[in-house]
Specification:
The protein has 209 residues and is mostly helical. Helices cover 79% and strands 0% of the residues.
Length: 209
């Protein structure tokens, strides 16, 4: 069984290898978001790093609302915006544009200090989130051999797990070493990584109808 898995990895179609790079970068940015949004928002939008304070609790609750807004935007985008846009400019360009919207959302955390204006950041991230959950798989479904579609889809999900492990082990060390009191720079890193995901999509060919 292991030999088959290794063989399938080495024999991945070119489109899958190129799309996997974009997947790796985009999920790295997402894991940074889930880990560091709360300390960033509580420190820069609510003005506290005291996790025992009432203000910190309000900030953490606001992060929960921001994530809910992000999910709402993603749901609307997945149902209405993505299919419409994909028909007009193609799946690859749609995904690229959505990833850039997510990168802009991350970058805005460096500038915005009003908690309410962070909703704008979440709109960009929600657009990216909708596309990350849908577009890579739509591209693969059109490009992979149908007899191995299930196997390759399973292998493709490895590029979700690996970024999680990398972010969990590396990002904290980098933050402590270089920005121990400035977690907002994690959002700058996420913005760069998400932009790299968009750049990686340049090498992905648009699937034929």
């Amino acid at each position: 069984v292991l030999s088959h898995i290794v063989g399938d990895f080495s024999g991945m179609p070119t489109v899958m290898k190129r799309l996997a790079l974009a997947q790796f970068f985009s999920w790295s940015a997402l894991f940074i978001m889930w880990i560091y949004t709360t300390p960033v928002v509580t420190q820069y939008a609510f003005g506290t790093t005291d996790v025992t304070s009432e203000i910190y609790g309000r900030g953490a609750n606001w992060v929960g609302r921001l994530f809910a807004i992000q999910n709402g935007v993603a749901a609307i985008g997945a149902l209405l915006v993505l299919p419409w846009l994909a028909k007009r400019i193609g799946k690859v360009r749609t995904h690229m544009a959505c990833l850039l919207a997510g990168s802009a959302g991350f970058a805005s955390f460096l500038l915005i200090r009003d908690p309410n204006l962070l909703i704008l950041s979440e709109i960009g991230l929600g657009i990216a989130w909708a596309s990350i959950l849908a577009m890579p798989y739509a591209i693969l479904a059109s490009a992979l051999p149908q007899q191995k579609l299930g196997i390759y889809m399973g292998l493709f999900n490895v590029f979700i797990v690996v970024p999680q492990l990398l972010v969990a082990t590396v990002m904290g060390t980098v933050l402590k070493a270089y920005f121990p009191t400035e977690p907002v720079w994690t959002m700058a890193f996420a913005a760069i990584v998400m932009a790299l995901a968009a750049v990686a999509m340049i090498r992905v060919d648009e699937p034929r109808p």
